[in-house]
Amino acid sequence: MECKNCGKKTLIKKGFRSEPAYGTPWDEEGERLPFCSDDCMQEYFFGDHDFKYFHCDKCHRLVCEQNPRNGWHTQYRDLEHDHYERVCLECYEEIIVAEGIPKKSFEDQRLAGMFFNTGEVPEGYKIVPGFENYFIRSEESIKRYCFKAIELIDQGHKVVTGYESLGLGGGEGYVTMFAKGGE
Fold it and tell me: In terms of domains, do 89 and 112 share one?
C-alpha cells in the first residue's frame, strides 16, 4: 500500500492505519487511511494544508475541515458552550435546533445559523412572519433582525437562523428566522 501522505510504498503496520476519517460531517462511514509512520499521519490530518482535519468535541469523529464535495464550505463551528469548543456542522445543527441560537449572538449582532435544505423547517419550529427570506443588506437590516430575535428569546422562544443565500463573507443575502416555544 501507499502512504496517504507521502506516497511511499510500505507495509502498513498495526497502529499506522488511521482512525476513521470523514470527508463531510454527514458521511455515515469513515475511511481508515494507510500511513507509513505516525509523523505522516499527523502531517496529513493536522498539517498546514487545505484538507486538514479536526476532532469534533461532540461526536468525537475526525472530520475534514473543508472538502470539495461540500463546496469547500467550512465544516465546523467554534462554540462558546459549556461542553464543546469546536463541533462539526452535523452536531452544530443538532445543538442549535435543540437549544436555539444563544441570545448573546444576536446581542453582538452576529447572525449565527445554518444552511438547511431548501424548504426545510427545523422540527418544531415555525417561520417568523416578516422574516422569511429576509434580505440582509445593511447594519440597519441586521439590527432589525437581531432585535426581533432577542424579543422572541425574551418571550421564551428558541430562535434559529436559516441561511438561504449569502454573498461571500456573509455581508449580504437572505436568511429566514425560525422560532418555537414561548409564552
Answer: no
